[in-house]
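Q: I have 132 residues here and want to know how they pack in 3D. Can you give me a structure?
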Amino acid sequence: MTLHLPVALIHALWAHAERDAPRECVGVLGGVLDGETARAEALYPLANISGRPTTEYLADPVHLLRALKVMAADRQHLVALYHSHPLGPARPSATDARLAQYPVPYVIADLSTRTLAAFRLPGGTVVPITSG
């Protein structure tokens, strides 16, 4: 699988991560599935309600449900989840892997190196990201 992120969505994701720092941001990406490519078309920032927001994320379930309903109304699929690691690294933490519940790529924005990386969790398989 490959995740395609348009440049505008990459900028929006970074803006969300920077705005929420030093807390981890969290959000979802809606789009279309095209064979082995997930094409993101929309970004939905969510509230991080974790009790430890500087080191982990927990998406507000009400905001997540709203985003999923908007995606369905727009005939989009959930194609990825994203969150930031304000101090790095651009790889999943043990908590990220343990709490993963969706069979989609999980994008991590490492603010310390401005690196985006995507993984299938809980296994940690790397998912290539393309843009354009």
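Q: Anything worth noting?
A: Helices lie at 7-20, 61-73, 94-99. The chain has a mean pLDDT of 96.
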